[in-house]
């Protein structure tokens, strides 16, 4: 009996610790939101009133808006490139016979295990010589490389999730490799591709280290602009930007979750009824 | 406890070697130009400029200033890993024993910070920790302290903020290892007379070890090369290797030395990765919970 009671006390302690850690994880980010609507230049918690002036300041500042649009552009281009290139590679890894597969797999995780500072400085060195610093092409290339590992792993997971027999069935019915991809594989992994693109966009949009080095004075990304502002003057505009970015992340996560659910439903349905030609 | 489907499911060999290579070509090209070439150029700089030499590497270890930075980097990375492990364990455990809405909420609490910009989270810590920041305000109003404390630009602040930023990378691998342990195992151990501690040590910990290794490795690797948080929270006083590299490039324009520092970092990271190759798995971070 006493052991059971001891267990229950232990369980409650572990639960309490877990919820405390949850609060620790969320609180610092979430506490910024109420502070961002305070009217005073000195951020305080709780805020002394309500005002949207820091949000207005962000939207009226040409430099903030320009940095945001530049980041959005770089994000969309990187997302599209990383998804296309990453999907092609995933197909080769799972459904093909790729020579030197082990080495390729090591290269896939390369941009994750190599510290971003190392990559950032190295890219800065080469991009300066190629005049790619501060260009959309430079950012698109750098961010595509950084997003690729996450895209490949997402697409691999999507490919593993459905039954490869479906493809083999289509093959044995005489469909060619491309037709099988177009009519069987692609519809099944489509939600996975969208969520891979979403990951890639978020990675590019939030990427701070490489952006810090390959930006120049008039073409910089949003994280680079934030970095400068944090370093030189902690203005309340930053709190407004941080809050909007957090909201954007929540939206992206909800979308990703919906896509994952859709993908699971699709895989189940396909397995149940086979795939219509 | 790998959840990979059995081999025969992956064996649908639809593409010939030539077609496979064609599919991989854009990736290989991009990685060669934007990943391998820049790193090789930088390392070349560190070894062959002005002439073939290891002088830049010797300098990193020879001068006490730089040695101190490297030791601080190692110490902070170890502290962050330990702190993250202690914080992650209870959360991962409760997640692994939750279902439905409870699990969804806990998972959201891990995934939201994971996908929130590192800059946003670092900025939040600066707002909390600065001299007239939230923590000092609250402590003063509560009468705990008379004058604001200096919290920012201390090693403690760097460890705290980095542990916070990297925590999801510890929670998710441990969670996926713990999830794979059937509850019957624990119950069986207890029915056979094991104490709570005994069943933890003999059953849970060994089965969770791959997840723990993976989480510790990810957090340690990321912490070693972390730039944003140490640069902003630690400032020049708490310089770590990434901030030193940045300073050498941006202020001293000493590319060979920056290259040598990157070389040291890379050797360390690559060695760890090769030793624990199986532990590096990104699927846990993209697949959500």
Low-confidence stretches of chain B: 1-11
Q: Main beta sheet of chain B: strand number and arrangement? A: none
What structural class do you assign from the helix and strand content of chain B?
Answer: mainly alpha
As a percent range, the share of strand residues of chain A is under 5%
SSE layout:
The complex is a heterodimer of chains A (277) and B (289).
Chain A: H1 2-30, H2 32-36, H3 53-60, H4 62-95, H5 101-113, H6 116-129, H7 136-161, H8 165-172, H9 177-206, H10 209-214, H11 222-232, H12 236-273
Chain B: H1 7-10, H2 17-48, H3 55-62, H4 64-96, H5 100-115, H6 118-129, H7 134-141, H8 155-179, H9 183-191, H10 196-224, H11 228-234, H12 241-252, H13 255-275, H14 283-286
Helix pairs in contact in B: 2-13, 3-13, 4-8, 4-10, 5-8, 6-8, 6-11, 8-10, 8-11, 9-10, 12-13
Keywords:
heterodimer, A: 277 residues, mainly alpha, MetI-like fold, globular, B: 289 residues, 14 helices, 0% strand
Can you describe this structure?
With 277 residues, chain A is mostly helical. Chain A has one domain: Orthogonal Bundle (MetI-like fold). Chain B has 289 residues and is an all-alpha fold. Chain B has one domain: MetI-like (MetI-like fold), CATH 1.10.3720. Chain B is built from 14 helices and no strands. In chain B, α4 packs parallel to α8 and α6 runs parallel beside α11. The two termini of chain B are 16 Å apart. The N terminus of chain B is likely disordered.
């Amino acid at each position: 009996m006493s052991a059971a009671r001891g267990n229950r006390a232990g369980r409650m302690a572990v639960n309490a610790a877990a919820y405390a850690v949850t609060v620790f994880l969320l609180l610092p980010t979430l506490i910024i939101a109420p502070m961002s609507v305070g009217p005073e230049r000195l951020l305080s918690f709780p805020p002394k009133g309500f005002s949207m002036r820091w949000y207005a300041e962000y939207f009226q500042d040409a430099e903030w808006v320009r940095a945001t649009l530049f980041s959005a552009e770089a994000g969309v281009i990187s997302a599209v490139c990383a998804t296309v290139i990453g999907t092609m590679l995933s197909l080769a890894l799972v459904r093909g016979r790729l020579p030197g597969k082990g080495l390729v797999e090591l290269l896939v995780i390369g941009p994750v295990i190599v510290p971003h500072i190392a990559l950032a400085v190295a890219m800065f060195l080469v991009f300066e010589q190629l005049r790619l610093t501060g260009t959309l092409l430079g950012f698109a290339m750098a961010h595509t490389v950084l997003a690729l590992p996450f895209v490949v792993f997402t697409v691999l997971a999507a490919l593993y999730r459905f039954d490869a027999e479906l493809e083999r069935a289509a093959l044995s019915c005489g469909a060619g490799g491309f037709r099988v991809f177009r009519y069987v594989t692609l519809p099944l992994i489509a939600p996975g591709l969208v969520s891979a693109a979403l990951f890639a966009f978020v990675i590019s949009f939030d990427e701070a280290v490489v952006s810090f080095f390959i930006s120049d004075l008039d073409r910089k990304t949003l994280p680079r602009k934030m970095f400068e502002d944090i370093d030189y003057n902690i203005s309340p505009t930053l709190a407004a930007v941080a809050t909007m970015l957090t909201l954007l992340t929540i939206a992206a996560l909800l979308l990703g979750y919906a896509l994952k659910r859709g993908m699971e439903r699709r895989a189940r349905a396909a397995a149940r009824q086979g795939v219509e030609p | 406890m790998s959840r990979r489907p059995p081999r025969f499911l992956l064996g649908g060999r639809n593409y010939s070697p030539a077609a496979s290579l064609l599919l991989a070509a854009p990736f290989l090209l991009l990685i060669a130009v934007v990943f391998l070439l820049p790193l090789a150029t930088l390392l070349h700089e560190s070894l062959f400029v002005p002439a073939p030499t290891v002088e830049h590497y010797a300098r990193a270890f020879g001068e006490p200033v730089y040695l101190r930075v490297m030791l601080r980097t190692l110490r902070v990375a170890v502290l962050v890993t330990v702190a993250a492990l202690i914080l992650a364990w209870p959360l991962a455990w409760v997640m692994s024993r939750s279902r439905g809405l409870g699990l969804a909420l806990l998972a959201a609490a891990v995934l939201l910070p994971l996908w929130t910009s590192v800059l946003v989270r670092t900025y939040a810590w600066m707002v909390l920790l600065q001299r007239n920041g939230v923590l000092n305000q609250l402590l003063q109003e509560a009468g705990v302290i008379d004058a604001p404390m200096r919290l920012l630009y201390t090693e403690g602040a760097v460890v705290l903020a980095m542990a916070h930023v990297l925590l999801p990378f510890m929670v998710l691998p441990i969670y996926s290892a713990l999830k794979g342990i059937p509850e019957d195992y624990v119950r069986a151990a207890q029915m056979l007379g094991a104490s709570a501690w005994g069943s933890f040590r003999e059953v849970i910990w060994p089965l969770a070890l791959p997840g723990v290794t993976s989480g510790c490795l990810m957090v340690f690797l990321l912490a070693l090369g972390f730039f944003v948080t140490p640069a902003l929270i630690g400032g020049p006083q708490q310089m770590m290797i990434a901030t030193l590299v940045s300073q050498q490039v941006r202020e001293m324009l000493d590319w060979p030395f920056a290259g040598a520092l990157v070389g040291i970092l890379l050797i360390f990271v690559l060695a760890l990765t090769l030793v624990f190759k199986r532990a590096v798995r990104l699927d846990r971070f993209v697949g959500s919970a």
